Amino acid sequence: MKLKKICFVTDEYDHPDFHATGGIGTFIKNLAYQLTERGYEVHIFTYLYEPGRESLIIDNGIKIHTISRVNFLTENLKRLIHKLSFLKSKRKLIDAFIYKVSFTVQLYLFSFKNKFDLYEFNDYLGDSCFFFKKNVVIRCHGNAKTLHEHMGYPRSDIPVFFEKIAFKFHKNIVCVSEYCKDTISESFDLKVKPQVIYNSVKSDYSLIEDLERENRITKSIFFFGSLRERKGLKIACLVVNRLIEKFPEVSFHIIGKNEANNYENICLNLLSSQAQLRTKYYGAMEQSEALRNLKNAHVVIFPSFGENFSLALLETMALGKIVVTSNIPSFNEVIVDNENGFLANSEDEYVQSIQEIFLGKKNINIEQIEINAYNTIVNNFDNRILVNENIKYYESILN
Questions:
Q1: Which CATH superfamily hosts domain 207-380?
Q2: pTM to 2 decimals?
Q3: What InterPro entries does the record point to (predicted)?
Q4: What fold is seen in the domain 5-200+383-398?
Q5: pLDDT average, residue stretch 259-282
Q6: Residues 6 or more apart from 281 whose CB is under 8 A from it?
């Protein structure tokens, strides 16, 4: 069977008509672009919570179909069930079940009309749990079960309920790193070994000529990612406090979604008065806008406690930026300390590494590390390379 038509089922996609997305939405868009350029017919099937937002959007040849899981039937069924007092403790699970069924029914109808060769789902929330078709791929960017068990995120029982069903039925699993493969296999007791295909980003092949001429903000520290405690937001703030005491000209720049109002609850509570005056919060941004601002960074900090694989890190290195990251397994699959970036095990080590970068210590060849960071992405994590691995894997499923 020849691969011709592919459907990505997702609640994240990088497009101006949708809410600002993180790395997953950007990854799906880039992969869809690469597949379309190679002649494949690519569709995006995505759901929105607001009723009445069904539409068809064409994005560079990619057909984006948006539906709503909320409709007259779902809301009336919910109201009926909520009147049953003996189900009160299960209301949230039942509501989620109703929306999953509504979404899946619409996906079945859509699939019957279009007859796709292959479907790809994200692992988070277990959206593939009731879609009992063959040729389904689950790509593991990060699900509620492994995020809780291996990375310290809060427990989320309802998503885990559906994720378990999805992993029990579907066997074509793609993991975005070796670390991801190990944790997924353990958490869901997988009998079939997942396929590892690293995430990828778009590289600008002409950028390397301009690295030394960029108009960077001297002694600027950027935090790029969702504003979450597990992303190391607290550590970033404490590091900035200490560095600004030594270098008053230090500036702190934050790009990312304000999860749970953490800019106010964490940043403004932890940053010193001096640091707050030197802090700029950009909010959540579309990828292109975020990268335009990131080009001005002197150092970008990734103090995360746990990641399956960070697209934000890849995008930053693709700009030839100096990164200082936590010493965690998935980052070790990308970063070689003092060669294409820096690894840190503690707040003190972040401060020491960034201080040495700012001072231009003789034992640190900053220009070469910037070039190495860029070349790491071009040679190992570029869309144009890894799209071929994805196609090969898709075809192996069909045949």
A1: Glycogen Phosphorylase B; (3.40.50.2000)
A2: 0.90
A3: Glyco_trans_1, Glyco_trans_4-like_N
A4: Rossmann fold (3.40.50)
A5: 96
A6: 254, 258, 263, 267
